[in-house]
Structure to design on (90 residues):
């Protein structure tokens, strides 16, 4: 119940998980009350979950420093053209 008010290190780890059920969860740094209010809270359980960190398949387009700089611009251009880009964004 305390995790609905104060963010724990376990909640912060969920935020960085590559599991799709954890996407867009636990944005709060200190007070998870805001996540609870806006529906983005994911509370942990007494039994720790196995976690992998990263972007999962979505991160494949960002496999180099150059791609980190250029891929977001390509994604934006693809949205204007209505096409899918390398990172899979429309």
């Amino acid at each position: 119940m305390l995790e609905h008010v104060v963010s724990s290190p376990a909640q912060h780890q969920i935020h960085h998980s590559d599991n799709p059920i954890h996407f867009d969860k636990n944005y709060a740094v200190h007070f998870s009350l805001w996540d609870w209010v806006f529906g983005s809270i994911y509370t942990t359980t007494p039994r720790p979950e196995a976690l992998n960190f990263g972007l999962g398949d979505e991160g494949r387009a960002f496999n180099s420093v150059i791609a980190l700089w250029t891929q977001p611009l390509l994604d934006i251009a693809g949205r204007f053209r209505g096409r899918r880009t390398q990172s899979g964004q429309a």
The mean pLDDT is 80. Residues 66 and 72 are 11 Å apart (CA to CA). Residues 56-90 form one domain.
